[in-house]
Structure formats: structure tokens, C-alpha cells
Amino acid sequence: MADQSIIRITKEIGDIQKSSDLSLAVAFKDRDVRNVKALIIGPHETPYEFGFFEFAVKFNKEYPRKSPAVTGTTTNGGRCRFNPNIYANGKETRTWRGERGEEWSAAQGLESILLSIQSLMSSNPYENEPGFEDANEPSDKKNQKDYVAKVGLTPIRHETLRISIIQKLEEFLGITGNGVVVPSAVERAEYGLDTDDFDVDDASVPWEPFKDLYKRRFLWYYDSYLETIRKAKEEVKDGQVFARMPFEGSSNSMEGKFNYTELERRLRQIKATLDDEANRWALEGATPKFKDATVGINLARQFEQIKESFKRSDVPHNIELENGNAFVWHLTYFGRPMTNLDGGLFRIKLNFSPRFPEEQPRVKFETRVFHHRIAADGTPCYFPNPNRREDVKQHIEAIIEALEEEAPPYDPRTLVQPEAHKLFWGSPDDRKMYNRRLRRSVQQSMEDM
């Protein structure tokens, strides 16, 4: 039974890792598949939108006959209750198919557990609290408004930004409370920032399997975060106290005050620090330490192979290295004929980390383009084959596919340019306006070269 349990858990983890679902991620350390870290990205048009919520999933030896234990870990050290069903101590209460009272079944699995939890992250979490499902009294309506103000105007939205996004990114980037960036001991050792040699104890380094994913998705959703803050500032004032709900207790609540001005400042610093990080990769790649390392040699080899592939297939696009640095590529994309991109000429920069492919490349369109899959700063929303993350050609093909796809399926998790997204998925007149603005940016791309 134990072997069958391990086989099933391993398969379920693999299925999620290979899935095209952009809102779920799972990982386990070494071979310990019974202890899984899971990440759920908050759904669009909810107070949890594009937040990062982590859970610890512990499978018992009798799984799948018995359900695993699930604990929320995005709680600000046990001080924040994000949902009526997700307590400050990490305990979560859920149903397996959204039907109250339904018991666990061996037919369920890891993905259904995570989707069930994600379903609790609704536009009105107030209704998730048992006894409040059909609350229609005037006091309930006010509480719902206040709670969704905790959420949309919002304490939940405010704390999603502050705790699940900003705090985690500041931690990963070494941004201190006073705004100073201090690299971790691991980074100092890797980057050679200290003059004295020292060893880093791997056991003392926190295991953060989603660190790079946080960073890349932050760049995707940065404009949406700023748009949320802009709207929230119109509804609440800095210093306004969060309202307490009837089901919240002193040790199981969401306490605090709104301060969107400060959140915006911190978001902008994170963005600047991430941009600096990509620039630092370029500097590191030019040094002998990294240039002659396995990653540098591999990137140089892939560059030559892709360049030759472009020549053989008569592809009009071109790639070059920046000053011979294999960690910085420039792709010149020529717009496909008979499309809205026809006649366009776009320059795309790919920065590679010395830890590639564990850290995926940072890609940016240096040529401005109005496109629903390209953020205002040029960051494209693309997804290469998850099983071939080390293949740079897969990245280039995925970038081009995202740019050229004319009839993609609707997926709000690809919302990286709010204005373009709204027009692209809006009315027929909106789509016409989108096409006009895209064509205008394509024409401008030729003039800017």
C-alpha cells in the first residue's frame, strides 16, 4: 500500500508540474514526496487577485484512502486570517467539490484539493463562513461590504499585496525595512561580493522552490498591482482602520490600517530591484568565473545552434550576443506578413542567470508595442514547455507564439497589460481599437529603428 501511495503522489505532483494551469505550482524537497509545498495564485477579479498563497501538504501513509493534512503558510507569522475558511494559524476548512458536508473520497487528489482551496478565494469571501451563506440582513450587507472592503478596497486586497506579494519579494531580494538591498549570504558567495572565502551551510538556507516563479509573475502582474492601488486610493484613506467581522476573533483576524501609498512605494522598489538583478546577471556573465562555467558554455553553444537553425530554415529573425556575452541575447523579430504585425521590427532582450535554468531568463521587448500579452515595460507573458526549460529555442518559440497568436483562449491569468487586455477581450469596437493601437505601435517600431 505504501509503494502504491508513493506512486500515486508522485504521479499527481508530476501532472500538476506538467499542467498548463498558470495558477498552481507544487514542489517537494529531495525525495520526500509526502511533504509537498504548493503555491496557489489568487484568481482574477477577487481580492486575492494575483497574490501568492503557499500551503504545506502532508500526505499520510494511507493516502489516498485518507486525505492529506493541508496548512496555509501565508499568514504573516500566524497573524493574518485571509479567509473565513483559512485561519491565521494556517488551518483551512474546505469541501472537495464545493458542496458543504461532502466527505473525502479516494477519487480526489492533490489538484482537486488545491482547486477546492482556490475556489474559496472568491469575490465575496464573507459568504464562505458557515452560517453566513445566505446572510441578507442589513447588518450582513454592511459587513459584506466592509469585508470586501477588507478585500477589494480592501483589507484582504491590501494584505494580499502587503503580505503575499510585497513581503515575500522583499525577502527574496534582500530589501530591508529601510529600503536598503542586502544580498543574502548565498548570493554573496555566488556573486563573489565578499573578499573573504566562507562556506554557506545549505541546511541553514530556507527551501524556496517558487522563488523564481514569484519574481517572474511579479513582473507579469506589476501593472495590475499598480492599477489596484490606484483604484483603492479613490475609496479609502491611508490610516483608515480595517473593520472587524463578526466571525473574527482577537487571535484569528485581519488587523491593521490601510496604507496604499507605502505599498506603492515598496512595489516600485521591488520592480527596480528586479530590473537591477537582470542587469547584474549580465555583468556576472562577462566575468571569467561565469563565462567559462558550464552554464556559460552551454548558453554559447545553444546560441550558435539557434543562429545556424535560423539560417537553415530561412527565418527572417536574427539573434546576436551583447558584446559577446552569452548571458545576454538580442533577438530581432520581423512581423509576420498578412497579420497586424506585418512590417514591424521588434528588438527583444533575453537576460540569462548564471543559475539558468533554475532561474528562468528575464525577457523584455526593447521596442515598445501595444499588445495584450506584453506588459507596459516590455515583459512578455509567455510559457515555454515546462519539460524543456533549459532549451532556449523553446523560449524563443514561445515568445513568438505569444506575440503572433490571433485567437488565443481566454485566460485572465495572462493579464499583463490591463488596458490592452480590456480592449482585446472587450466588445467588437474595443477589438477594433485594440487592432488600431497595435498597428500604430508596429508602424512606430520601424520608425524607431
Describe this entry's structure for a reader.
With 449 residues, the protein is α+β, with helices and mostly antiparallel strands. The chain has two domains: 4-281, Roll (Ubiquitin Conjugating Enzyme); 294-448, Roll (Ubiquitin Conjugating Enzyme). Helix content is 40%, strand content 11%. The chain has helices at 2-18, 110-120, 138-149, 155-173, 185-191, 211-233, 260-285, 288-291, 294-312, 392-404, 418-424, 428-448, and strands spanning 24-28, 35-41, 52-58, 69-72, 318-322, 325-334, 345-351, 362-365. Helix 4 (155-173) packs parallel to helix 7 (260-285), helix 6 (211-233) runs antiparallel to helix 7 and helix 11 crosses helix 12. The protein is globular and about 60 Å long. It starts with a helix and ends with a helix.
User: What is the CATH superfamily of the largest domain?
Assistant: Ubiquitin Conjugating Enzyme
- What portion of the residues fall into strands of 2 or more residues? 5-15%
Question: What is the global morphology?
Answer: globular
Structural class: alpha+beta
CATH topology of the largest domain: Ubiquitin Conjugating Enzyme
**Any idea what the radius of gyration is?**
23 Å
The CATH class of the largest domain is Alpha Beta
Largest sheet: 4 strands, antiparallel
Distance between the termini: 64 Å
Order of helices and strands: HEEEEHHHHHHHHEEEEHHH
Mean pLDDT, rounded to whole units? Answer: 86
> What is the topology, as strand order, of the major beta sheet?
1-2-3-4
Q: What's the tally of helices?
A: 12
Helix content bin: 25-40%
Pfam family, one: UQ_con
Protein name: Putative ubiquitin-conjugating enzyme protein
Organism: Eutypa lata (strain UCR-EL1) (Grapevine dieback disease fungus)
InterPro entries: Ub_conjugating_enzyme, UBC, UBQ-conjugating_enzyme/RWD
